[in-house]
Amino acid sequence: MTKTFTGFLRTVSYLTMWLVVFGVALVPALIIALLPKRWRLNKVLFWFQYGILWVLLRATWLPVTIEGKENIPAEPVIFAVNHQSALDIPLIGVVVGARPTIWMSWSGNLRFPIFGWVVSRLAIIVNQESPRQAVESLYSAAELLKVTPLDLIIFPEGGRFTDGTVHKFFRGFAVVAEETGRAVVPVALFNVGKVNPPRSFWLYEAPLKVVIGQPVRMNPGETAQDFAERVRGWFQAQEPLC
Fold it and tell me: What is the number of helices (H) and of strands (E) in the chain?
């Protein structure tokens, strides 16, 4: 895609808002992160998080279409989302709103000073380079969901892909669904990688679209792997995603 002056203004708007948000949110985020675990995940955090992500998404000045929002049930669920770009975060954050949520986050985020520490306190970290630690993180997530009314947001592909196709799903979300009995709500994001490719700050022009599928539950006797493939099949039916 071609860089334009409009794209330049959009990029400046988005990056400027990132700086503003970082400056405004840093102290409150640190205070929340310092709280004991039983107080950390509260309504103040969820509304705070939603407000930040809403502002960041609006700063892109891109049209956003959301289909299927009525498919999100009132009870807590597991949101399974395809992953294309860092812009996925504000987009899915606006979709779920201020619902009580916790994110599964890649351990690579921990390398960023301050931000990484805050993420480690407010999300569940998954180390994909260590299968043992990854499994421990999944069961930690399951145990947390059993005792709290939190939604879980997870990217089953385990990485960012911008070729418009759905890549192999890790079955971790299916394991959590099996352990908790939670329904999985598939969420397909379109054009996000086209707008903001990985390792790029530039925002290109393209409409953002979100399609939310109906909740999916494991069938009796269904394995986690088979369930993961069934959910992946819904995403494949949405292709191309750009």
Answer: 9, 7
Strands 124-126 and 78-81, by their bridges, are unpaired
The per-residue pLDDT for range 57-89, each reduced to its tens digit, is: 999 999 999 999 999 999 999 999 999 999 999
Strand partners, 211: 67, 188
Comparing CA positions, the residue from 233, 228, 210, 75 lying closest to residue 154 is 228
**CA atoms within a 13 Å half-sphere pointing along the CA-CB vector of 40:** 18
Q: Rounded to an integer, what distance in angstroms lies between the CA atom of residue 110 and that of residue 102?
A: 16
**CB of 180 within 8 A of CB of 108?**
no
pTM, 2 dp: 0.93
Tell me the CA end-to-end span of the chain in Å, nearest whole number.
12
Q: What's the CA dihedral at 226, 227, 233, 234 to 10 degrees? A: 170
pLDDT digits (tens, 9 = 90+) for 195-223: 999 888 899 999 999 999 999 999 999 99
Query: Do 106 and 156 form a contact (C-beta atoms < 8 A)?
Result: no
Judge contact between 151 and 77, C-beta under 8 A. yes
